[in-house]
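Work Package 3 (structural annotation) set out to generate three-dimensional models for the target panel prioritized at the project kickoff. During this period the team completed the workflow that converts sequence records into discrete structure tokens, so that structures can be stored uniformly alongside our sequence database. As a representative example, we reproduce one entry of 226 residues exactly as it appears in the project archive.
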Amino acid sequence: MINIEVAKRVLSKNDLVATRLREFYKIKHKYVVNFMSSPGSGKTSMLEKMSAYKDLKFCVIEGDLQTNRDALRLEQKGILAHQITTGEACHLEAKMIEDALPFIESSLSFKDLEFIFIENVGNLVCPASYDLGANINIVCLSVPEGDDKVLKYPSMFMCADALVISKCDLLPYFDFSVARVKEDINSLRSDVPIFEVNTKDDSLKSLKDFLLESKKQNYTTTYIFK
């Protein structure tokens, strides 16, 4: 019997589109953030809050299985947003982003924006396998989800260039150890910046400043999606 090793990555088609996206972002001078988490972690609320920071000029490509509710929420805050509804797909793919970009680019405000946030479908599994060509991957974990998720879903947290612990105003009401989360993520990937935030105060400023500095330094993730 002859065993044939298939070394070619199954998602190679997605990777080719992601390469095209990286070139597009570079040409258009856009810094792209792949924002990932489970459903209900507060990604949309955080983007709404950060729209108040006038030095963070961004638009959003929004991913959900159904409805355009989150995109409408963002638009009501004056944020340029485009909704992708994936149907039954539990993640965004590079081709979906490529197809959405003309709608964003057609806006007169696009040329003045420096960041594109890709708010991925809420899921701690599938999005960790799909390269969207982003400069940086940010993963969010909310306090109500529990502090045990990092090692339960290692692929997601291994791709994190930064970790956001959201809804920290709820810490007094949940058995959630920030120290445990920090220890767990450092066991997967050392020196990951961690931001403890909520939307009730100005704690998101630290994340905003981090993003501005990452763009200034032209930081690009070294994570290879598998």
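The chain is about 35% helix and 20% strand.
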